[in-house]
Amino acid sequence: KAGVTQTPRYLIKTRGQQVTLSCSPISGHRSVSWYQQTPGQGLQFLFEYFSETQRNKGNFPGRFSGRQFSNSRSEMNVSTLELGDSALYLCASSWDTSGRAIQYFGAGTRLSVL
Amino acid sequence: GESVGLHLPTLSVQEGDNSIINCAYSNSASDYFIWYKQESGKGPQFIIDIRSNMDKRQGQRVTVLLNKTVKHLSLQIAATQPGDSAVYFCAEPLSGGYNKLIFGAGTRLAVHP
Asked: How far apart (Å, rounded) are the C-alpha atoms in residues A88 and A92?
């Protein structure tokens, strides 16, 4: 069974630009969560989508947004990029019915903002 | 490989030794904890979980211990192997569901032959 796939693996953008990251969850998983990982702040929850609806949201500015499609694939968008947005963005999918926090993570998209 | 954390605490062990990675939590109402492992260039991988009605849970070569009195949990890895070299995170769900996790800062485990 294929794992969680994130594309692209690497991105370089400049301040002020916007970026879209993509995540294909494991087949059958309906929940997709996004996390930001930086050396200074560690792993931080961005948001979770379930059945095309945002179910949970972390403490990030409105420049960070996402969506989920009917096939459970998800995208996240960051507008008006800032230097501090440079990070590894991780997507995780899960069954959501196990009653356990078992999330399957992709390898991430490393975003560098210059 | 890609840097996960530049200044993470590091535990260095010899191959074959047992490793103990510690994690403290602050919320006495926390009732469920998870350990994840992140190897260089990869996303975190689920290792084991434990609910607050248990003090100990064992998996394959791993044991998680929970001490609710001092709000502390630990991950023990038996007979540590080079493939265990990674960053280990404890985590717990934020209010709102199991797919909304808060992660600890992480501990880097370095296994030397």
From this structure: 13
- As a whole number of angstroms, the distance between CA A107 and CA B42 comes to 5
Which two three-digit tokens encode residue A8? 């692209």
Q: What is the DSSP letter of A96?
A: S
- pLDDT digits 0-9 by tens, B43-95: 999 999 999 999 999 999 999 999 999 999 999 999 999 999 999 999 999 87
| Strand B10-14 with B107-112, pairing | parallel
**Do residue B101 and residue A4 have CB atoms under 8 angstroms apart?**
no
Backbone angles phi, psi at A72, to 5 degrees: 75, -10
Nearest to B99 among A39, A44, A94 (CB): A94
CA distance linking residue A102 with residue B20, whole number of Å: 22
Instruction: Please tell me the distance from the alpha carbon of residue B56 to that of residue B61, in angstroms, as a whole number.
Output: 13
| C-alpha angle A59-B39-A46 in degrees, rounded to nearest 5 | 10
